[in-house]
Write a structure and sequence with these properties.
Strand order of the largest sheet: 5-6-12-13-11-10-7-8-9
Radius of gyration: 22 Å
CATH architecture of the largest domain: 3-Layer(aba) Sandwich
Shape: globular
Order of helices and strands: HEEEHEHHHHHEEHEHEHEEHEHHHEHHHE
Number of helices: 17
CATH class of the largest domain: Alpha Beta
Structural class: alpha/beta
CATH topology of the largest domain: Rossmann fold
Strand content: 15-25%
Number of strands: 13
């Protein structure tokens, strides 16, 4: 199999198509098609709701029935093809959005421009299901398993599920900094009154990704005043790039992670850079941190905390922050109303990618810190469109190295899963449904 990088418009090669029901390596009963009387009823309901929703959207969906009949839905736009209609609606009816994603994994539907198709859906996310029926969410939607709640007991397993997959895997599609979070490309800043936003970056090239990742890190270090002699706590080590850059400024850094794979490679990279005396990488839950720090920084780790523990997270930061210190957090955020509506919903992302995760809103970060800590949100930069382009570049690199992914022991289902994950995420940011923010928290009365 030869896979070349797709073009930015999504028209290039796709991950391998699934045959009717090929064997999977590690995916449980994924290839078992739902059946039974209840499934038949839910499938009929799902077909009606799906047809009504798609016919309002600027997409094209071609549905092929078992007898060969074809139906075309939508107002025209990015094309999706449903090749196994009965299975598609059975999965969608029984498991809603989880079923929608699983139907893609097994090849019941496909889309050449997957990101473009999903972006149209994401733009209408709050209205895809009729408003009166949304009141039934609590009855229909699955709740997260208790084993995935991000408690001290469960967090290590939740993190390992994703970040301990393989350092070699992440090296295939990340830039040389090994930054697995949104880059910040070189664009203008707009004053929005209560915050600033970065203007969209257009279609940056792969060569622009590394400087943009460095820009993101340096801006957060600048915003938190990290310099010579600063005592820095980083919550969520990644693979050590931020810790190294803080150490290069003369800071003393403690960076913590729950991923053994990340810890090993981060230590290796820090040692190779000659920074081991200034940057320590420890396996440690954020709730167990002690000491006092002039700056606390955390890049896209709050998403793994879980809404049940946001208060604990911010109170812990408040406890260890020295007088006059600053907190810098890069966070993926979602609209406040959607956060409230979905906080007890188990999603495809939870099941296959990030167990235990949940996205905050900017409002809830402000609310929790005001009500439960002495910290106050004093600066914010929004740059969600930059994440859409970061994800596009990651997915192009991932697909371009499909053979290398398979050589690591992953299978075709995994290729489709990660392509779907990256494009599903890109759609969230491209549509504006999701955002990413760098926020600075301080105790204003302590600032000179």
């Amino acid at each position: 199999m030869t896979v070349t990088r797709p073009t930015p418009d999504g028209s290039g090669p796709q991950p391998p198509a699934r045959s009717a029901h090929p064997a999977t390596q590690r995916w449980g009963d994924l290839d078992v098609v739902p059946t039974g009387p209840r499934v038949q009823v839910s499938a009929r309901i799902a077909r009606r709701l799906f047809t009504a929703a798609v016919n309002r959207l600027a997409v094209t969906v071609v549905i092929t029935e078992a007898d060969g009949r074809r139906t075309t839905l939508g107002k025209g736009g990015p094309v999706a093809t449903v090749s196994r209609a009965e299975e598609f609606f059975a999965r969608l009816g029984r498991d809603q959005l989880i079923g929608f994603g699983e139907a893609y994994l097994v090849g019941a539907w496909d889309a050449e421009d997957l990101g473009g198709f999903l972006t149209v859906l994401a733009e209408q996310m709050s209205d895809l299901v009729p408003r009166p029926l949304q009141k039934l969410r609590a009855v229909v939607a699955k709740r997260p398993p208790r084993a995935q709640v991000s408690s001290k007991k469960n967090s290590r397993d939740n993190i390992a599920h994703h970040y301990d997959l393989s350092n070699d895997l992440f090296e295939l599609f990340l830039d040389e900094s090994m930054s697995y979070s949104s880059a910040l490309f070189d664009t203008d800043r707009l004053d929005r009154g209560d915050h600033h936003s970065a203007t969209p970056p257009g279609a940056p090239t792969a060569e622009e990704l590394h400087p943009a990742q460095v820009r993101k890190i340096e801006r957060l270090l600048d915003a938190t005043g990290v310099g010579e002699g600063s005592r820095v706590l980083e919550i969520g080590s990644g693979w050590g790039e931020l810790a190294m850059r803080a150490a290069q400024r003369g800071a003393d850094v403690l960076t913590i992670t729950l991923s053994t794979e990340q810890q090993a490679l981060a230590r290796e990279r820090i040692a190779a850079a000659g920074m081991s005396e200034r940057a320590r990488v420890e396996l440690c839950d954020y709730r167990a941190v002690t000491g006092e720090f002039d700056a606390v920084v955390s890049v896209e780790m709050i998403e793994a905390v879980g809404h049940q523990y946001w208060t604990t997270y911010f109170q812990t930061i408040d406890k260890v922050l020295a007088p006059g210190g600053k907190v810098g957090i890069q966070a993926i955020t979602m609209p406040h109303d959607r956060m409230l509506a979905t906080r007890n919903t188990w999603t495809w992302i939870h099941k296959y990618i990030f167990p235990g995760g949940f996205l905050p809103s900017v409002e809830v970060i402000d609310e929790v810190t005001r009500e439960q800590t002495s910290l106050r949100l004093t600066d914010r930069l929004s740059f969600g469109s930059h994440y859409a382009e970061t994800l596009r570049l990651w997915d192009e690199a991932f697909l371009g190295d499909s053979e290398a992914v398979l050589a690591l022991g992953f299978d075709d289902t995994f290729l489709r899963m990660w392509h779907f994950y990256l494009e599903y995420s890109r759609a969230g940011f491209a549509s504006g449904y999701l955002d990413v923010n760098q926020v600075v928290l301080t105790r204003p009365e302590e600032q000179a």
